[in-house]
Batch of 2 targets.
Target 1
Amino acid sequence: MVRNFLAFVLLAFCVAGCGAQGGRFVTTGCQSNAITPNSGCIDIIAGYETKQTNAEAGYSEQNLLYVIFITAAFQDHGSSSSDDYGKYVTTLVRAWTTDTGTLSASVLWNRQTDVITVGGREFDRTKGNVFIVKIDRDNKIEGEQSGELGPHALLSGLESQ
């Protein structure tokens, strides 16, 4: 009986640990809103740092990353997005279907090293949490880091209340 109970407890811990996020940050979601028709979108990644300074107060969810996708002027026939909150990497993929094909870009945030990768370039998120991702008509992706917004910044009323 005790042996079965211990096996059950061990199994429960293994199942609970599967798929858990690791690293310095945990991402809890993404809010994405379109920028004027056919221009791109703004994504706000929320979450919390795993090592809080006041552990008794619990975690404090906040905006950790702001990503602005800007697409070249084109005739948009729809868009799609996907988010993946892996063990150590959060991945955002955004795509727009056009007259000439699909334009897409991805942003990877390694939450363990706190490095953002856009278009093959790496950025240290501690030097700014706002990123601009430009996608041209040939699907060339250019990323740049652009300053810092506070953990509760409101972008034109995009944030949920």
Target 2
Amino acid sequence: MEHVREVIIVEGRYDKNAVLQAVDAAVIETNGFGIFSDAEKLALIRRLAQARGAVILTDGDSAGFLIRGHLKGALPKERVLHAYVPDVYGKEKRKSAPSKEGKLGVEGVGSKAILAALRRAGATFEEAEQTKTGAPPITKADLFALGLSGCEGSREKRLALQRRLGLPERLPPNSLLDVLNALYARDDFLAQAARTEEEQT
């Protein structure tokens, strides 16, 4: 599977799942219109765009374009690419009826269409992070070994680390992993986690 350097911004978790079936990338959800009132999430997306670049990949309906417009105005123009899925009419498998405009969203167009949209937008396709940089990525196993997931007190430790790193508290563990890999080399992350642990003891 090809790796995309930029962080891909989508509307929701079904869109994220669809993108991750097409490419290996850090994918962040806006939670639909939630991005309009979530200053922390917007600040995080801005930070990720500055660090890695961002590709906005929202649905082709009016709601998707409203979200895209909001992000476009809030992010550094030179660090953002815009990917558009084609207008395909129908309904997503999980839904009982088509959307208001009758178009499939990111979740419904399929991997080939997502890949084509990212290529048209100018996304940077590269070898997997580990082979490209020679450094392993931060993994779920690292979070577990550091007591940041899967054990008693892990949530508190994770929140303390997120505060230290200036990351939103409501970031789910899987999204946290994407963000950490987008912003930090593994050694830097381990050093930050060690300092946080020292401060707590």
